[in-house]
Amino acid sequence: MGKVVPVRIDESVLKFIDDLVKLGIYRSRSEAIRELIKAGMKDLKDYKEIADGVERLFKIERKLGKIPIELPGMLRELIAERERF
């Protein structure tokens, strides 16, 4: 069973959710919100995997003192500049 999580939602977002329910796409607000969150998580999964991979590279870099892969042009420059941010 899922957990109940109170959230604040802008009126425009709630109207959109209500419209989806009225159209019969979802049976309730709860179902709509739950499914939309799942869809958003699927979309962001790739970004999470990339971030995890980059973090692993940084750990290897800290251990070895260098990035363990050859990076082309701008990507190499971006990595070199990351300390500024």
What does this protein structure show overall?
The chain is mainly α. The protein has one domain. Helix content is 67%, strand content 0%. The chain contains 3 helices and no strands. The chain has helices at 11-22, 29-64, 73-81. The chain is elongated. The mean pLDDT is 83.
Topology:
Layout: H1 11-22, H2 29-64, H3 73-81
Features:
0% strand, mainly alpha, 85 residues, 67% helix, 3 helices
Question: Can you give me a brief rundown of this structure?
Answer:
By secondary structure, the protein is mostly helical. It has one domain.
Main β-sheet: number of strands, strand sense, barrel status? none
Structural class: mainly alpha
User: What is the residue-averaged pLDDT?
Assistant: 83
Count of DSSP-assigned helices? 3
Model regions low in confidence, pLDDT < 50 over at least 5 residues: none
Radius of gyration from CA coordinates: 21 Å
| First-last Cα distance | 41 Å
H and E order: HHH
Query: Shape from CA axes?
Result: elongated
Helix content: 55-70%
- DSSP strand (E) fraction? under 5%
The strand count comes to: 0
